[in-house]
Amino acid sequence: LGLLQEVQPEEAYLTHLRSVVDVERIRHRPLKVVIDPMFGCGIGYLEKFLLGAGCQVETIHSYRDPLFGGIVPEPMGKWLTELQSRVQETGADLGLAMDGDADRFGIVDRQGNYVSANQVLYLLFYHLLHTRQYKGPVARTVATTHMLDRIARRYGLAVEETAVGFKYIGQALLERGALLGGEESGGLSIHGHIPEKDGILAAALMVELVATGGKDPNQLSQEIAAEYGLLVSERIDIHSTQEEKERILGILQSFHPAYLGDFKVIERITHDGVKLLLERDNWLLIRASGTEPLLRLYVEAEDWESLKRIQQAAIKLLDL
Fold first, then answer.
1. Whether the Cβ atoms of residue 300 and residue 231 lie closer than 8 Å to each other
2. H or E element: which one contains 161?
3. E strand or H helix at 95, and its extent?
4. Is the pTM of this model over 0.90?
5. Quick one: CA dihedral 115, 121, 126, 127, positive or negative?
6. Residue 1: its pLDDT value, please?
7. Could you count the other beta carbons within 10 Å of the beta carbon of residue 270?
8. Which CATH architecture has domain 117-228?
9. Looking at residue 96, what is its pLDDT?
10. What is the distance between the terminal CA atoms of the chain, rounded to a whole angstrom?
């Protein structure tokens, strides 16, 4: 034997994927999809899986490029414009993207609209509970939507809130039996799969979801909002120098207002940045990025007007 041994994980991975995704639901109503692996290591995997399930598949950006086509290989709205266009041009049911190392996902609906990671998380959690009739707690990071909490409460299930970082979600999946774990930046896994985020899995589960009921993700989100109440969320990334970041972090140590704008502060949580739980299920989180020179401001609120008011109040108080 030489020092190097070639390993081909594709078949073993796809065999396992077929055990955690309901392929028969997809075969019953195969979709037309466009896949964007963003020049990364996920090339071929999702395409082969969905073709085997009877789907009609078109793939873009499906060759290796160390420069990622000159774009950032991040499956978020502003980097998915070509995928959005192809979905509309071809009349596809879904657009499915993975980042460069295929551990994060990006979803586009049939109208070409980007579906946020928060939406994907609560849609899939609801699907696992309501359609598959599974039961189990949910794990989410401190920055992730509380719509998961609302759904879990309805089913009498626990919610585990963790610091940002999928290693914490992985522990909940592996050690505490979480049914689904996720983060707003596009990471997701489920019980029975690996305790690490997997963009291919997330995309395949979204195909299962849409194939099951034939409804578009944004239509399903509206139905969830009608049943559980509306929640909207937004993250603002604030570029800052190290000096500015340290100034804000210093202020945050004693940042405990009784009100944020006209919203009463109910609770202050500090296990990753500072999170203020406000009345009527609104909340704000301010934390420093662990990977970039950024401060991140997250807000989730009962409507867009409230969200903007909370953002503006925080920016004013912290002099951002």
1. yes
2. strand 159-162
3. strand 94-98
4. yes
5. positive
6. 57
7. 13
8. 3-Layer(aba) Sandwich (3.40)
9. 99
10. 60
Rounded distance, CA 60 to CA 215, Å?
24
Single-letter residue type at 23:
V
For the domain 232-318, what is the CATH superfamily, name and number? Alpha-D-phosphohexomutase, C-terminal domain (3.30.310.50)
Give pLDDT tens digits for 226-274: 999 999 999 999 988 888 888 888 889 888 999 999 999 999 999 899 9
Interior angle at CA 312, CA 310 and CA 317, nearest 5: 95
- Tokens representing residue 297 in the block: 């401001």
Burial of 224 (0-12, 13-18, 19+ CB in 10 A): buried
Instruction: Give CB contacts under 8 A, 24+ apart, made by 65-69.
Output: 65/39, 68/38, 68/39, 68/40, 68/100, 69/38, 69/39
Give the residue carrying structure tokens 């704000």: 284
Cβ within 8 Å of residue 290, ≥6 positions away: 164, 165
